[in-house]
# Entry
Amino acid sequence: VAKEHPRQPLTPAVFHILLALSNGDLHGYGIMKQVNDDSERRVSMGAGTLYGSLKRMLDAGLVKESARRVDPELDDERRIYYAITALGKKALAAEIERLRYLVELSRRRKLFPRASVLHA
Amino acid sequence: MRDSHAARRVYKRLLALYPKDFRERFGRSMEQTFADNVRERRDRGGHATAFLAWTFAETSLGIMKERARQHTSSVLAAIAGFVLVLPLMTLEWATRSNRPRTDFAVPLFVFLWLLAALFIRTFVGVVRTAQAMLQGRVAVLSSISLVPRIAFLGLIAWMWVSWVIDQMPCFLGASGC
# Structure
């Protein structure tokens, strides 16, 4: 069955930022920590990559600045929080679907050793 | 403690190398994020040298990327401007035998090209600001800057079209140009 392919793939940085924000509004440092946790410390995102990606994501309407300003732990009013938009959620869902399709395809072609053992 | 203050000062200077609009939009947040990371490392009691080296290198790369992106739009505007002027240049070249004087009006075409590139560059900026305004990403006060930019666009368009209309007989090979 021909599957409908989602649009353009997201870059790993954009995907991880959207994934981090799907958990709630975060400031820059919060996003970095969340990405680090989500990837089990496999992805370390620097400020250059993070803010460069955020700029393009804000311009594309994938994220927006949140009204929230104060971190109860860090208590600093200067922090800018970011929130995922409806378009961002859509893009994230499409990317997850694209990845799911690729994993399925890899399994069918037995390119995924663990899965092929499990499904044998 | 003193070391972390010095690192923050150096990092702030590094951030000054970002393009102005990027720096104004994210500079303070980046400083804050850097301070948070430094504090986290300090609280953990680990060595910050590797982290600092990586952060400075990664941010420097980010600066280069942003600078390259900024120039990309100018280069694209220059190419688009050239494409606009190209038919006029072709016309001038094709009808050159009709004129007694055979020299090519290079300054005129350079002027028309630069004017067209400036129009496109400004137009893209206006469209981006308008989009940001419609999406609520730009304060209404900032959007006021659109008015002089749109007026400037009108002036460039008027100059360009007037010049082309004025020079059209010459492009078409009229004598006495």
User: Anything to note?
Assistant: Chain A touches chain B through 23 residues (CB under 8 Å). Residues 1-6 of chain A have pLDDT under 50 and may be disordered. The first strand of chain A starts at residue 26 and ends at 27. Chain A has five helices and three strands.
